[in-house]
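dumping the sequnces here before i forget
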Amino acid sequence: MSKRDSFDLQKTGFTRRGFLKGAGVAAATAAIADGSLEALADSKFTPPNLLGPNAAKITLNINGQAKTLELEPRTTLAEALRINLDMTGTKVVCDRGSCSACTVFLDGVPVCSCMTLAFDARNKQIKTIEGLAEGDKLHPIQEQFIEHDAMQCGFCTPGMIMSCAALLERNKKPNLEDVKDATRGNLCRCGTYPKVCSATLAAAKQMNGSNS
Amino acid sequence: MPETKTTSAPAAAPVPEKQPVPQAALPKDEKTEKKSAEYRFPVGIVGVDMKEVEREVSANEPPPLPINEKLKVIGKPTPRLDGRAKVTGAAKYTADIKLSGMLFARMITSPHAHAKIKSIDTSAAEKHPRVKAIHILRNDHSEAQEQKEAGPAFAKIRYVGQPLGAVAALTQHDADEAARLVKIEYEVLPFVTGIEQSRKEDAPLIFEAPVEAKGSAGGGGGPAGVAQKGNVRGPAQQKRGDIDKGFSSSDVMIEADYRTQVQTHSPLETHGVVADWKPDQLTVYASTQGTDSVRDELAGVFKVKKSQVRVITEYMGGGFGAKFGAGNHGVLATHLSRKANAPVRLMLDRREQHLCVGNRPSSQQHMKVGAKKDGTLTALSLVNYGTAGVGTGAGATGPTQNLYTCENLLTEDYDVFTNAGPAAAFRAPGHPQGAFSLESAMDELAEKLDIDPLALREKNDESSARRAERKIGAEKIGWSARKPAGSTPGPVKRGMGVAQSIWYRFTNQDSHCQVRITRDGSVELLSSVQDIGGGIRTALAQVVAEELGLKPTDITIKIGDTNYPHGPASGGSVTTNSLTPAARNAAYAVRQQFLEQVAPQLHAKSEELSMSDGKISVTADGSRALTFKQAASKLKTDQISAQGDRKEDYVKTARKGKDRGHDSGGVGGVQFAQVAVDTETGQVRVERIVAVHDCGRPINPLALESQINGGIIQGISYALYEDRILDRQTGVMVNPNLDQYKIAGSMETPEIEIHLIEQYWGKSSTDAGPIGEPATVATAAAVANAVYNAIGVRVREIPMTPAVVLKALAEQRKLAKA
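..and the predicted 3d for all of it:
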């Protein structure tokens, strides 16, 4: 579906091809080069920045906290969050970048965490659904999702909220079409889209009201 | 005696208090001894035909509730209680459960559409250093079962993706790898995936013996005891009157073929469990629509007592009918947990979700409608062949049987087996398919008779709910401005269409709950029912809060755990209708105990007290009052509690005969669609939907609206986009994902306007009814009728993809030239 492709491009800055070509290539090369690695080790020479295929220690900055983890380079950011850190607010639905349920922010940009290697999230600020509220104070988008009942089963909700929160970051006064566009990659099987839109518009109003 | 005035129209002034009705006339002792009491119930549609009707009910049942306008909590838009958990990511779904020492599992599935297993070699997988257990299935738990003695050691393979076994390992990656290490030798057999091919005499035989499939909650599975020949099981037949006479007495006839595709449920959370086998207790976290159905199946398979199996579903990510019972994955995970002596998580991947845990069967429907010149139906005949793959339940004749009054009727449903994954109940089983053919045919009839489609329905539909709904909807959509078919100038043509829903009031009496009040003032409700997204958690809190004069947020709802009283499985739109009366009955019983104990503190008799706004006060003297918390602190014991059950309906409605499926036995719903069709690209765009629905007494209009939105959007998705495509050469599904299996997104969502009418039947202590299913029944048909109105060409096939629409337009041009 073309809209999903354009969504990927627009929202994440990644295409699948670009993903393989670019960021993921270091890990892939490392795995392929395993045999020669041993030879390198024998020669007592360890090249810098070569990791894998076994688990290696990395530090991720998640919701303002540094977390040190031992991960295989193939681990996606979604897996690292959900399995290694038990931060299960981020959901995995399609595991191939077509539904946006796993949306998190990387340096403020919403990305599919199932299409991002954890290693590529090093040195970046990661924000997840768990970090959206400030302590007990919910983000206006979260408040309005509750108020408008912009959820049913709730499985798409974290990803949906992250996409909408990102929209409000870049556009203080969105209209209906802007919200639809911002969530065009977020699939919801219960059909909550109309209320996602009304909740987001209300949140924008709420945020503008408190700013002025 | 409190007055029992007739409320023919909603009272203008809000009446603050619930009125305890006639029972107050009886001295208390006499009341408790009496087996039943007579009450006057509000019955009818608010604003249309309200009246009061006398009903005899069990003395344990609470007095009737007045209409919503006079209530404080029920019927008021109420944000869901679990909203905060869902928006913060705190809600834990099955896929999120992590137990100490938990292993991860992956299923081994069949790559072939039809085969016998010659051998299975698990040695390589066993040698994998991080594999902890392997289990191979002896039979498929989800397909129809042959009625014969246990067969060979391995299950026969009948579809691609059939679960054969599973592997548990330390990580998901390990399990995925190890599953691929299991070597299976197959004897590949000829297979068949198409209905036409499968019906042929020389088609490969899918089942060698007659089969039966267990039905599931929500109407999945085919009828029992139906003839089977070759790959065809049927007909399941329904007859009324004399069909031949019906047609011979008709002035006009419509005869047409309609086709619908296979649709997969595609819930966002896949099917899955975390199973934790311990010698005395099996605990299973399951993504299910029926906690007790999972418990029952596992207790049966593993031959343990139901009391030794505990199933937990705190949150679940959508099911739409596909998630009942343990399934192959539940059985496999339990075996693995027992073998590995560790908890095992087995969540299906997206591909498996499409292949092996259910779908909506396809249909090929031959419809014949006979009518008089004035539109009166004289005969309805529908013969339907559909495929539920290796399952049963492709019936699609429900709407034709039940929607319109027609004396002469013949319907036949045939299940055609194919080498494809088994169907499962899917939101209003058979009804979106059946409404597509019936409501399209009604539209064709209206066109032929030159009668307005709404007037034609008015003539043949005896439901007072749908009558009211047609009126409201026609006004909202601007029906009077509807133009003749195909009359928009230019390539982009606009049109308007209407179609009707029917669904039934199924009640599941396995609906119990307990309500407790504790001395600290906390109130909780316990039931094993699961919230599948409809918001039963909140509806239950509203009912209890109404009875106790509290706010919904004052009530702690503990559900989704078979340790609590048995709740209903959520399928067939039964949950609110079944469980809210039990909740009210429990709250009413605990309220009586509570007031008995509090009364002396207020120097009054319990029946002189009322509970509202968080206070217990003497009805006649509001100054004598205690807060709920103060009153609770006076309880003699730390806790009081009562169990509530779902009693039978106060009056029974025949599901057959003249009443079938109408006001008293079912619900309606009328949907209007406005579309734009680009005749150059074939693209159909739904611009607007007006949906008018009824669901008895609405409990939470906010969540009801959400469910109706969902039904409509799924219906649009079904009408225009979704299609499970099997490769004829291999039997492999070519789009088992969420990018090529296209479900409607925000850009495909039109402007939706919802109106709910309020209808009372006086049948239970809450009078709540169904909504999940009726909301999706009419949508595809309404869109199809709007497409016809736009382009003047009938599209009798869904999904109405650009290719299908362009083909229909081309055929029309060919006809015009000839």
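The two ends of chain B are 79 Å apart (CA to CA).
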